[in-house]
Amino acid sequence: HSLTLATPNRVAMSHACAARHSCSSVVAVISHRGRAALLRRFSSAARAPPVIDLSPLRDGGLSSSSPLVREVADACEQWGFFQVVNHGVDEDLCARAEEQQRAFFALPMEVKECMRRSADNSRGWYNDELTKQRRDWKEGLDFGSTPPMDWSLADADARNGTLDGYNRFPPADLLPSFRPTMLEYYDALAGVATGLARLFSLGLGMPADFFEPYLRRTQHTSYLRLNYYAPYTGEDPTQLCISPHKDAGFLTVLRQDVGCHSLQVRDRQAPDGWVTVRPEPAAFTINTGDMAQIYSNNRYHAPEHRVLTSPSTPRYSAPFFYNPAYTAAVQPLPSLGAPHFDRCVWGYFRAMRFAGDFADYGEEIQISDFAKGSGSWHVSNQSRFMAEVDFDASFDVEAMRPLLTRSSA
User: What pTM value is reported for the model?
Assistant: First the structure.
């Protein structure tokens, strides 16, 4: 594998694979003065996001009072992170998808370069993503939904055009099983996300199908991201694979690499503490996104999380970002009291977030920009954006720079 990145010049956190050493063994080798501080830092080690059995979801007949609904709602409120088992996705499919993912990142760099994403197409391969204006240490490949959701169409077919662009896959003569396997996997993960959305809705006191108009198969704008984190070879001991961030969409379904536990979530009970999320066998890790936090009027929590580097162990992951329709006007449910947020159009939020991933367009958009009384320029700029942008056409972040920068608002 190869990962060509510029030497990072930012402050991040120290690299590690998994926190495999106990607090006691670490504390034993530090000074007495630093012992209390280190114990506070590791105080959340005994806490962890819950593991939830989804079997009752497949059995049907759930209501807002069902134990599973309460478990998921509690996890969304307290952590915004949890793992699910008995989710219905075949382990053979997961294994085939992982095999194809590893094969893709092993391709020569010149092959991947031909798939590099661009200012007018957010889908494709990249090794230069920014998170909150900081360079990540990773390679990635993004592909996702199309308006007709007809995988038999050629990827470049005009009917597949979206705000995010067009899918790009490796040549079939190099990886003949990649596209069919990954699209099958995509559909399976979408099925898990659909079931979770029903649980999210019930947990907020709404009918199970409340979110369906924004998240049905031909409406949602989800994408699957394949990540490869090479062993860190730089000289900055504070480099992260991905800096602390929150996921922008509705929810995320993640298959973690069981060989390297470097995903961490911030502990809400100890804001200076980070909890390593160690995957259960055959589990998916779920986290609540920004849009779910708005819909829930701050009841559900979109957690900050990060990915540590390792000096020796490569890591793979595949998050599925379940996102609403571009035109969805996301706002707190009226049954949840006085709204804490103004209306946020997902297509605007997504375009602004991709612009920040692709290049440095200033401070990254956050849902706090849509908090009541925030006075953020995004509230008015969103209306301008909606009047000028066609959601059925690829959005060019360079051509649309005036819509993306505060100085032009």
Answer: 0.87
